Amino acid sequence: MTRYIVFANRKGGCGKTTTAVNIACIFSIKNKKVLLVDLDPQAHATLSLRINPDPEKPNIYNLLDKKASFKEVIQQVITTPKINCHSITNKNDEKREKSRSKNLYIIPSSRNLSVVEMNAPRFSGDELYLAEILHNNASEFDYVIIDPPPSVGILSVSALVAAKEAYIPMPMHFLAMEGLAEMTRLIYQINATWNPELKLCGIIPTFYNKNTRITKEIASDIVNTFGTGRLAPPIRQNVALAEAPGHGCSIFEYAPDSIGAEDYETLAMFIENNVK
Amino acid sequence: MSEKTDNREFLKRTTLQDLLNQKNVLTPLDNPQKRENSHIGGKNSFLEEKTSKLEEISLFIFKRGVNELKQEKYCCASALFETLLTFEPDHIKAKLNLAVALSQVGNNKKALAILESVLEQEPDNEVAIQNIKIIEESI
Ligand SMILES: Nc1ncnc2c1ncn2[C@@H]1O[C@H](COP(=O)(O)OP(=O)(O)OP(=O)(O)O)[C@@H](O)[C@H]1O
Ligand SMILES: [Mg+2]
């Protein structure tokens, strides 16, 4: 059974792309076949894996525009980690070698994707199109991971209609919590309209600092409101996570010994086992 | 005296539940979400499946709304009927019940607007006609 996962939050910069890319990479390292769908015109997921978001090359826009087929737009990701980019030890080199995998595929994004959001003609059924394509074509994958843009337009809605599991990455701030309530509302609305299978599976604390009072308050709020099972293991603030995309690779290749790698490995374990 | 209470109210932290309530989101734990391992086949079966699940969910929400209404939990009831109307905007029974819930919490203006919209759909709807009369008399 293919699992369709979206890391969604209309708040920008909360760690959606970092989470999508690193979770996709670690699942592929664990020998799962993974498809990462970059649905953001910013193309940050695409760039993070050293792929040029060239509008001339087959990309997600062509797929949504019905000008290219699913097969034509998927691309295998060959990560070539740049050695000498961080404090490197031999042990790291070994881990890096292990973290190369042939199981990761991407549907890259490109700038012209923003056209979809701008001219969205909004005829009914548009929201279902991505879901239809993915559900009909991606059965060979173990995981389909979608990285939506920070907005509530046709692209984000399509992502939520195509996914079955929604995870919300969020920093532990009050205004982010308002964003969480709003996302919850959106998820339930989409659950009630287009996609009865969509489920809010977890809230992922990002940029986490366990020592602040507000972190504790918000974490306990989440547990009280959604139950313990929905609070995912947190991702701490870690500069290596912000550096890795510049080197075109995941945290597991860039800095396998960092706390960022550790946190994403734990999160992957949580997601892997979070099935009911 | 009342100023003191207001101050304390101001200092109280807004919780996630408060925010969800503001947005009329049902308590997440009893949201009618379902997870089924049904296989999604071709295009048509995919859409068909959505329709039947939609009906199932709408009936479920409607029944729960009626239940809340019976227990005089008007806010919960109105949230449920509103949810239902977001995806079935012409659901007459949901509109009638929503109007009852709203008038009970004092929102007669919105209740009347909803009853008027029922009459646009069904000009002879007796419940709507009667309830408009009752509300108008009470104002
Ligand atoms: N745990 C972390 N520690 C340090 N930096 C992080 C962490 N997570 C993400 N970042 C950095 O923060 C920035 C925003 O993260 P990211 O791009 O993943 O957010 P996003 O939600 O996808 O943003 P957008 O809404 O623009 O798509 C990026 O520069 C990223 O490298
Ligand atoms: Mg992003």
The name of the CATH superfamily of chain B reads Tetratricopeptide repeat domain
Category from helices, strands and their pairing of chain A = alpha/beta
**Ends apart, CA distance between termini of chain B:** 32 Å
Quaternary form: heterodimer
- Which geometry of chain B do the CA atoms define? globular
Binned strand content of chain B: under 5%
Number of helices of chain A: 13
Number of domains of chain B: 1
Order of neighbouring strands in the sheet with most strands of chain A: 3-4-2-5-1-6-7
Largest sheet of chain A: 7 strands, mixed
Poorly predicted tracts of residues of chain A: 81-89
- Give the second-level CATH assignment, the architecture of chain B: Alpha Horseshoe
Report helical residue fraction of chain B.
Answer: over 70%
Strand content of chain A: 5-15%
Order of helices and strands of chain B: HHHHHHH
Please explain how this structure is put together.
The complex is a heterodimer of chains A (276) and B (139). Chain A is of the alpha/beta class and 276 residues long. Chain A is built from 13 helices and 7 strands. Chain A has a 7-stranded mixed β-sheet with strand order 3-4-2-5-1-6-7, sandwiched between helices. In chain A, helix 1 packs across helix 13 and helix 7 (126-137) packs parallel to helix 8 (154-162). Chain B has a single domain (3-138), classed as Serine Threonine Protein Phosphatase 5, Tetratricopeptide repeat (Alpha Horseshoe), CATH 1.25.40.10. In chain B, helix 3 runs antiparallel to helix 4 (74-87), helix 4 packs antiparallel against helix 5 and helix 6 (108-121) packs antiparallel against helix 7 (126-138). Chains A and B meet through helix 7, helix 9 and helix 10 of A and helix 2, helix 3 and helix 4 of B. The complex binds adenosine-5'-triphosphate and magnesium ion. Residues 12-18, 40, 42, 44, 150, 206-207, 235, 237-239, 241-242, 245 of chain A line the site of adenosine-5'-triphosphate (ATP).
